[in-house]
Design brief:
Two copies of one chain form a homodimer. Chain A contains 13 helices and 14 strands. By secondary structure, chain A is α/β, with parallel strands linked by helices. The mean pLDDT of chain A is about 95.
């Protein structure tokens, strides 16, 4: 039979996949062992409490193995949902019932379920410029119309949001605003309190639900914690969190907190994605978390990441001062570089990998509006502290050769 | 603030969620401890090789814990994809490269990725009448137009398929045909070889890719294995399998095998669902599988399920003969009852749970065309063998009280 005939017809949404395809191809190159990579946003495995994870796994499999290996409820393991409700109270001072919580297969599944429940082709969503590239991909998968709101060193700009909302008008407001208020991916910046209040007020006024991605918020290296948007506006904020940065990504677990009706709808969406998140993973995380493992891990991880951040900032200062600008993140995994005017970050990245064996993520995939050539994301979370100076030195060579 | 205002606007696809909502509500009732439930399609945890799973978990965490708990490649753990390719060769005599395999978070995620890649709102998909209810839900989530093809005791009827395809014409053929050829959920029936060949020929002729769901095929209790549709038509069949019935559902792992271009697109879809399936789960399954665990589990599980099937069929024969008809599955988890003409299976189910403490799944959610009141699905996989006689006795009381 003719293989060509069997190129199946693809849905139109796949036409928006070229960005994700390009990023995937470049990320594959960064995995060469001789490359010092500031690219991937992976946690440092040295922060994992492996012995305690293994103890929890042993306890779960030896006492509840049959249940842990079978299907579980679509909304998630009830004891884990209770633990999440307690954390939301302790961390965020947000009071939730377990029926306002859905356990998901990571933060991205939470976002994809929200997109499934709220978005049709053509629905308008608002995002930061820049914003998390996988979130942009989720919205592209939904064939949403993505509008960008400028982000500066204090986070998303309320004036820019207001202008956009006024321009759209009140008749058919955007379906959602997606935000990472603390230590944003990719810029590392944190939305300050005044802007949190203004953005919430604007969204409440225009009737735009906020999807708050809390992914990095527990990893603060300096400064005082800020209230989550969920705390400022419990009714209007759909809160997403992940266990990837407070436990480990390898279990693919996260959660969404929203009103009970929406959670009920999201659970029906989940019947059409994976039916339930890993039962084994949920029970292991619950055992680990309920014995204080997550608190201990966060306590141990913060100084590890702070040291790496400080090392990166010191080397940037020492080697790149005056040539590029960068953000100073108070937490999270990322520093955002503003390259010299006229830079082409995608071209620079190719040269960086091939000629200088150093990698980052070019700025462009973080913008829904085609900008980003003058930016680059550096992640300091995964690479070894002792490689940071040499990595920045290689970045310096890349920039020296530019133009 | 007014909570009512914050009932977010839902996407139109959620209008198709009433079936899933009703099934979810009824399934919750079946979990009462005094109910003998033929409802859920869960594997028997007695078939899990818990000690060996624990050994594998220990080995993975103690030797590769940092990697096992971190993110992994979106396409899946390479060694697991190699193992899958070997199984596809050994089990199905299908030769695949690892780049024709994507590891997914269960069979349902595989199907949802295929739907994401292939379907737009209004796309036509073909399914059996009856068919797996979660698959119907996936297609409803995609806002596909679902057309049904009659299934009888030999599986899907090629004549009915041909009539439908002729009616649709060749200009805009259906985007896919979804099939569970072996021990179908819910009917338990197996598509015979002659029909496999005819259905493949028809789909090849009309240019309709087949999505073959292989979920139960390794659990055959009698009769000779049949070639998978993937073997009969490698280019045109998108093959989906799950670890839920050959290992355990609690790790949420499965795979899809298709052409490399489609797998590449499915992997991009997966960046928008969960980025990667559980790394820990994949490494544990690979360790377990590569030491012969899955072969051993299948060998041990078959007699367990065969005994339960035989017990259920014997009790149906003893207690319900002449009052209902049923299928005789050669494998899998399900027996399909045809109730007396004029039955209302949803009403019967409510009475069964409330008055007789026995549960099944009503036939209706397995039909996309609104039929099914005269059918019920009995699952024999999860309940205890010693409860089967009493369960059928309660079913007998339900039927005796009918009308």
């Amino acid at each position: 039979m003719d293989k060509e005939k069997w190129a199946v017809r693809l849905a139109r949404r796949t036409e928006g996949f070229h960005v994700a395809r390009a990023v995937t191809q470049v990320l594959a190159l960064t995995e060469r062992p001789d490359v010092i990579s500031f690219a991937g946003g992976l946690p440092d495995p040295g922060t994992f409490l492996l012995d305690r994870v293994e103890e929890s796994t042993h306890r779960v499999l030896s006492t509840r193995g049959g249940e842990a290996l079978n299907y579980g409820p679509t909304r998630g393991y009830l004891h884990l949902r209770h633990w999440i409700a307690e954390q939301m109270r302790d961390w965020e001072r947000v009071e939730l019932d377990p029926d306002e919580i859905l356990v998901t297969s990571g933060g991205i599944e939470a976002l994809s379920l929200v997109a499934m429940a709220l978005l049709e082709p053509g629905s308008t969503v608002l995002v930061g410029a820049p914003s998390y590239l996988a979130a942009l991909h989720v919205f592209r998968c939904s064939q949403a119309e993505i509008l960008s709101v400028e982000v500066d060193s204090r986070g998303m700009k309320p004036d820019a949001l207001q202008d956009l909302l006024e321009g759209i008008g009140r008749g058919d407001p955007p379906r959602l605003l997606y935000l990472i208020p603390s230590f944003q991916n990719p810029s590392g910046v944190t939305l300050d309190l005044e802007r949190r209040r203004r953005i919430v007020a604007l969204c409440a006024d225009y009737g735009v639900p906020i999807v708050e991605d809390h992914a990095y918020a527990n990893l603060r290296y300096q400064g005082a914690p800020l209230p989550s948007l969920k705390r400022l506006w419990p009714e209007g904020v759909i809160f997403i969190h992940t266990f990837s940065k407070i436990f480990a990504p390898g279990v693919r677990l996260g959660w969404v907190a929203a009103g009970p009706d929406l959670v009920s709808t999201l659970a029906l969406c989940k019947i059409g994605t994976d039916q339930c998140s890993s039962t084994l993973g949920q029970r292991v995380v619950h055992d680990f978390a309920s014995r204080g493992g997550i608190d201990e891990q966060i306590r141990r991880a913060i100084p590890v990441y702070r040291r790496k951040r400080d090392a990166l900032l010191a080397e940037l200062n020492r080697q790149l001062s005056g040539r590029v600008e960068w953000t100073v993140p108070e937490g999270g995994f990322y520093v955002w570089l503003r390259l010299p005017p006229g830079s082409n970050s995608e071209q620079l990245l190719r040269e960086a990998i091939e000629a200088h064996r150093v990698a980052f993520v070019a700025g462009t995939p973080f913008f829904a509006d085609g900008r980003g050539q003058e930016f680059a994301r550096l992640s300091f979370s995964f690479l070894r502290e002792e490689d940071i100076a040499e990595g920045v030195s290689r970045l310096s060579s890349v920039l020296a050769n530019q133009g």
